[in-house]
Design a protein that fits this description.
Strand content: 25-35%
CATH class: Alpha Beta
Number of strands: 13
Order of helices and strands: EEHEEEEEEHHEHEEEE
Number of domains: 1
Number of helices: 4
Structural class: alpha/beta
Length: about 200
């Protein structure tokens, strides 16, 4: 199972210079936010792969014009090709507006999806725009992570925690992957291919 993770910057290799070979073997495309609606629509049309997404803090246009042909997983558990995804868009509130949340507001959003998580029997991949506190976030106010994501990942033990928001172009010291108690925390900036064992049928 190969999952193409995207975030924050439209990849020239997938848009300006798209070639079918660049998505060969990809099963699912997942956007971690702050990508143009047209980019996601282009990918879902040209690749014929399922495209799942959450909004980033700059995706205010999604409110009136969400990406057509793509599935929003913000605040929901969605199973695609046997993989259970849980998504939370947005970032820490720093200026107000859509897709910005306080710590308490994000914790409340998590509580609202508890029933879906139980019904799905857990989740395989957590997809967020902002990272967890201390794992892939930054020191400035706008790019801090959420404390509640730490508890969520610790509880659910997903195969991966994927986020965007912190551009790896900000500094060469920003890692692609950090470890959180054995869970890979992946910065999806531009594009990254996550490989997982094929999901096994559940009873």
């Amino acid at each position: 199972m190969k999952i193409l993770l995207l975030s924050d910057v439209e990849s020239p290799a997938l848009w300006d210079h798209y070639q079918p070979s660049r998505v060969e073997g990809i099963d699912i495309i997942v956007s971690c936010g702050d990508l143009k609606r047209e980019y996601l629509e282009f990918l879902v049309t040209l690749t014929s792969k399922p495209v799942l997404y959450i909004p980033g803090n700059h995706d205010v246009g999604y409110v009136k014009e969400p990406p057509e042909g793509c599935e929003c997983i913000d605040g929901h558990v969605v199973t695609c090709k046997g993989v259970r995804f849980l998504g939370f868009g947005g970032c820490k509130r720093y200026s107000g507006g859509d897709y910005q949340y306080t710590e308490q507001e994000m914790a409340r959003r998590i509580r609202k999806v508890r029933r879906e998580i139980r019904r799905a029997g857990g989740v395989d991949i957590i997809v967020t725009h902002a990272p967890m506190t201390g794992y892939g976030d930054a020191d400035d106010f706008a790019h801090r992570g959420f404390d509640c994501f730490l508890d969520l990942a610790e509880e659910l033990q997903p195969k991966a925690f994927c986020h965007g928001h912190v551009h790896r172009s900000y500094s060469w010291t920003i890692p692609r992957i950090v470890d959180f108690h054995g869970i890979p925390v992946i910065n999806a900036y531009e594009r990254y291919v996550l490989e997982l064992p094929d999901p096994q049928p559940r009873p």
